[in-house]
Design goal:
This protein is mainly alpha-helical. It has 2 helices and no strands. The longest helix is centred in the C-terminal third of the chain and has 33 residues.
Length: 71
């Protein structure tokens, strides 16, 4: 939700951050299920592996964009 609100403010869909408070409600905290610790750990490792694999690609894409934007 935070990223969507940031995009809406940045894109001019919402006038400013003050109006975002009307779009968010705070509910009860959600606690992780301790019986799923192994599954969480596996999913986190997959996330780390994906980040490691994608970092060089992200850097190449950023370099292309910077080269196109250079004067």
């Amino acid at each position: 939700l935070g990223a969507a609100l940031a995009a809406a403010v940045g894109g001019g869909l919402l006038t400013d951050w003050a109006v975002t408070g009307n779009l968010v409600t705070i509910g009860d905290p959600v606690e992780p299920d301790r019986s799923l610790t192994d599954r969480y750990a596996e999913a986190y490792q997959i996330h780390l592996d994906a980040a490691t694999a994608l970092t060089p690609i992200s850097h190449r894409l950023a370099a292309r964009l910077a080269a196109r934007s250079a004067p």
